Amino acid sequence: xxxxxxxxxxxxxxxxxxxxxxxxxxxxxxxxxxxxxxxxxxxxxxxxxxxxxxxxxxxxxxxxxxxxxxxxxxxxxxxxxxxxxxxxxxxxxxxxxxxxxxxxxxxxxxxxxxxxxxxxxxxxxxxxxxxxxxxxxxxxxxxxxxxxxxxxxxxxxxxxxxxxxx
Length: 166
Prior knowledge:
This protein has one domain (10-165): Beta Barrel (Elongation Factor Tu (Ef-tu), domain 3), CATH 2.40.30. 17% of the residues are buried. It contains 1 helix and 11 strands, in the order ββββββαβββββ. The protein is globular. A 6-stranded antiparallel β-barrel has the order 1-2-11-10-8-7. It is mainly beta.
């Protein structure tokens, strides 16, 4: 029997970061470039118990608290890097440090050259460290979920450099 599976390259799952305009009126979703780490942990919440009449434990998933670790080499002129650096350097807190991320699946069935399925969620930007490399100035941290995910469609007019989400 022939193997009909196809390996999905990491580059086909693309993240976009919402950079708010200076006026705060609009948000532009820019492709996250120059990132050396963008990995998600689901952080499932568990309820585990053992009943007296059974020899084994039972576990149920009762919730999730997703987080995405990040690391990037800072590039001047990159709007995503500039926004995360501002949050880090200015030690922004509360809603001033919340941004939306959109994961676009370019490998999904139905994806075209200008549209693809996408998932959006708000995250608190949690900076961790900076300057940990001798080769480039680097930043690391985590995006921690601030709400439920919203499924939709991403559309691009500039070859997946920026997107709109519906």
